[in-house]
Design a protein that fits this description.
It is built from three helices and five strands. With about 120 residues, it is of the alpha/beta class. It has a single domain, classed as 3-Layer(aba) Sandwich (Oxidized Rhodanese, domain 1), CATH 3.40.250. It has a five-stranded parallel sheet with strand order 1-5-4-2-3. The protein is globular.
């Protein structure tokens, strides 16, 4: 028996995926630190705290919470840039990272608000 796994997407262990409906519900219950990391800059999800290009995390490190256990929710247009940003934040010591699965596209598909 041959198992083919090369084409399957495996989420990195340093970031948790979260659906648009899950993120929306969390945002209804509490204030979250929400970061758009898409390049070029796009229309932001309502409630976005910060825009930082996924490939310039170090340049804007002072804009992120000092407490590296603070939950940080990331998104881009469809997901990959959020994972790249999460990898870099993890390398900088952040440990509570979430990436919006499907990114702003998934948010839009759910009919949720943009700024």
């Amino acid at each position: 028996m041959i198992t083919v796994t090369g084409c399957q997407f495996l989420a990195p262990d340093y970031v948790q995926g979260i659906s648009a409906t899950e993120l929306h519900q969390i945002m209804q219950d509490k204030d979250v630190f929400l970061v758009d990391v898409h390049t070029p800059e796009q229309r932001h999800i309502k409630g976005t705290d910060l825009f930082v290009p996924y490939n310039e995390i170090e340049k804007y490190q002072d804009k992120f919470p000092r407490d590296k256990n603070t939950a940080i929710y990331l998104y881009c247009e469809s997901g990959p840039m959020g994972n790249a940003a999460a990898r870099r934040l993890h390398e900088l010591g952040y440990r509570n990272l979430y990436n919006l699965q499907g990114g702003a596209d998934a948010w839009r598909e759910q009919g949720l608000a943009f700024e």
